[in-house]
Amino acid sequence: MSEPHISTTPLREFKVHKGRVRAVAVFPDKRRMVTASYDRTLRIWDLKKGVMLKKMGKAVGYRHWQYHEMGN
């Protein structure tokens, strides 16, 4: 198994949140990520295109969300 590539150089910036980003999670498919911000929103991003796919506004309890993939 190869070692993961670790880089401190940003490949892309996602600057849409109005507050600082508090959490980031990449989906298992490695094509999307979700960000949670102090502006109380969650946003889903397309990592390849760098575009926002969905905004979920004024999330309550956003610190406690998690992604769960349903089995086939």
UniProtKB/TrEMBL annotation:
InterPro entries with a match to the protein in the record: WD40/YVTN_repeat-like_dom_sf (IPR015943), WD40_repeat_CS (IPR019775), WD40_repeat_dom_sf (IPR036322), WD40_rpt (IPR001680)
Keywords: Repeat, WD repeat
Mapped WD repeat ranges: 14-55
Pfam families linked to this entry: WD40 (PF00400)
PROSITE patterns in the record: WD_REPEATS_1, WD_REPEATS_2, WD_REPEATS_REGION
Designated name of the protein: Uncharacterized protein
Organism listed in the record: Suillus luteus UH-Slu-Lm8-n1
Record lineage: Eukaryota, Fungi, Dikarya, Basidiomycota, Agaricomycotina
